[in-house]
Amino acid sequence: MATTKAKLPSSNGAWADSLDQWRGRNQHRVVMPSGARAIIQFPELMPLVLGNAVPNDLVEFARQEITHELGMIGAYAEKIVELDTDKPEDLEKAKEYTATFSRLLKWLVAEHVVVEPKVTVEDLSEESFPLNDLDWLYGVATRRVNEDALGRRLGVARLDILATFPETHGCPEGCPKCVEAIHAFSTADVGDM
Predict the structure, then answer these.
(1) From CA 20, how far away is CA 83, in angstroms rounded?
(2) For the purposes of burial, counting CB atoms within 10 Å of the CB of 69, is it exposed (0-12), middle (13-18) or buried (19 or more)?
């Protein structure tokens, strides 16, 4: 009976990853639609709401992520559809809802999506950013987007087909070409394979 020997990941000789390595598992090196590069992470709106970490003026829409069956986007759309934009008071409500929803998206992107380069809500409010990048970042914030501009899956792509490649190819550990191949398929830092 043939047996296979499983190779355990090594982390500089220690069993556990360091705290920085662990934190880094949530970060993704991406290329945005304009070609700009960034390091991002996925926001977790529900824990932010439950931890009272959302600014007070944004918490009404943020809570909808938990309470509305279609999340915060569905709640926003429902509020807008219910309004009669032929009425001046409803038109003002629509503008108010849209402004609040926009501030929530910008807050999520600035505080919980973009790691590098660091941006602020004010930066995102300037008209100098490519709109396709902002839309893409809002897509990450609302989990509508699952690929970067290079077509790489955000997160850990199925890399099991490459898991044995370095060993069978005869590469030394940490081979730059193997690391390059892995990064071509996944935005995440998958650590030792």
Answers:
(1) 48
(2) exposed
Task: Give me the tens of pLDDT residue by residue for the chain, a chain 193 residues long.
Answer: 444 444 445 445 566 778 877 776 778 899 999 999 999 998 888 889 888 999 999 998 899 888 988 888 999 999 999 998 889 998 999 999 999 999 999 999 999 999 999 999 999 988 888 899 999 999 999 888 889 998 888 876 665 656 666 666 677 777 777 777 777 666 666 555 4
Map residue 106 onto helix, strand or coil: helix
Q: Which residues pair with 28 in a beta bridge?
A: 40, 188
Distance CA 72, CA 49 (A): 12
Residue 186 in contact with residue 159, Cβ under 8 Å?
yes
Rg (C-alpha) for the chain, rounded Å, is 21
Instruction: Say which amino acid occupies 23.
Output: R
Beta bridge partners of 31: 37
Residues whose CB is less than 8 angstroms from the CB of residue 133 and which lie 6 or more positions away in sequence, other chains included: 32, 33, 34, 36
Can you give the pTM of this predicted structure? 0.72
Per the DSSP assignment, residues forming a β-bridge with 38 are 30
Give domain limits for the chain: 22-152, 156-193
